[in-house]
Amino acid sequence: MKSKKQIPLIITAISLIIGFMLAVQFKSYNAHAKTDSKDISQIRQDLQKEMERHRRILTDISKYDQLLYEYENPLNHSDSLKVMKEELSRIKALGGLAEMEGSGLVITIQNAPVEEEDGGYLSTIFDDDLRYVVNELFGAGAHGISINGNRVTPTTAIRNVGDEIQMDTKIIRLPYEIKVIGDPNVLESAMKLRGFEEYFAIVNKKIIMKKLDKIVIPAYDGKGMIRYMKPVKEGS
Amino acid sequence: MWLPIIGLIIGVILGFSSEITVPVEYRSYLSIAVLAALDTIFGGIRSYLENVFDIKVFMSGFFFNTLLAAGLAFLGVYMGIDLYLAAIFAFGVRLFNNIAVIRRIMIGRWFNDDTYRE
């Protein structure tokens, strides 16, 4: 049994602990309350500032957009119609809806003079081969391509249907005459670099490339190219 | 008699000068523990004045009540019942009781009159 003298000391120690707990509780409660309210008001102010900045930047953007538009399109009425027509024809040309002419390359793929009979399979060109060529030509900066008079548009499909190759729904047969508008030298070197001559030689075909100053490629003659999609309105 | 109050003051000073803060989610536990501790200390003072003070009871009561209160609050959170209200109620009532008894004893001693002690 502890002596009576020690008891106040123990109570003192415990009250010290309680005081400590009280103070910590009080302090943490107050600290949280203070930081919270301060933070919210500060955040609100920051938000206000940022929103103002945002508005300012938006008005700047619209101002410069307006300016850019004025520079690009002179703002009198007769001119704007002309600009629209030009834009339309440019888009048509790029999309394959207009005839185009320019310098470029004519690639003819034809049967090589047969020396021995190889059997049918090895001497067939597949859709893959033509797609590969077309892709490579676009990669080399071709503006427009037509194969046997069929314009290659952004939605053109080249695929095997049975034993024949179809472009969209038109059957194309040998010899393939691929007309490309673009820089003739770049196009030719791209074709050579990729080794198409050797590649087609394996399947007994010969590639003849002719650089011309003036090539005319026809417009896409299909109808209903865009049926299921509509432009999205801005801001909706 | 004055030693516990001095201890309390020192504890408060220590707590304020230290950098310890309790996370928000544990604040309710600490508050209930503080309440339990306060109840125990006043119970101790009362029993000391009544000369029935037992240090074992006091010490065990201090720690047990504190932990029980915090544990009740914890359990209540998980059960979806505000179980800490029970602790607050119990300790609050006991706190007032103890302080009333202490007050009576002190008044009796002050006036040297035993009629204040029930």
Describe it for me?
The complex is a heterodimer of chains A (236) and B (118). Chain A is α+β, with helices and mostly antiparallel strands. Chain A has a domain of 123 residues: Protein of unknown function DUF881 (Alpha-Beta Plaits, 2-Layer Sandwich). Helices cover 49% and strands 20% of the residues of chain A. Chain A is built from 5 helices and 8 strands. In chain A, strands 3-2-7-1-8 form a 5-stranded antiparallel β-sheet, with helices on one face. In chain A, a hairpin with a 2-residue loop joins β4 and β5. The mean pLDDT of chain A is 80. Chain B is mainly alpha-helical and 118 residues long. Chain B is built from 4 helices and no strands. In chain B, α2 runs antiparallel to α3. Chain B is globular and about 50 Å long. The two termini of chain B are 22 Å apart. The mean pLDDT of chain B is 82. The chains are: A alpha+beta (236), B mainly alpha (118). Chains A and B meet through α1 of A and α1, α2 and α3 of B.
Task: Summarize the model shown.
With 236 residues, chain A is an alpha+beta fold.
Layout of helices and strands, plus pairs?
The complex is a heterodimer of chains A (236) and B (118).
Chain A: H1 6-72, H2 77-95, E1 100-111, H3 127-139, E2 144-147, E3 150-151, E4 158-161, E5 164-167, E6 170-172, E7 176-181, H4 184-193, H5 196-202, E8 205-217
Antiparallel strand pairs in A: 1-7, 1-8, 2-3, 2-7, 4-5, 5-6
Chain B: H1 2-17, H2 27-49, H3 55-79, H4 84-111
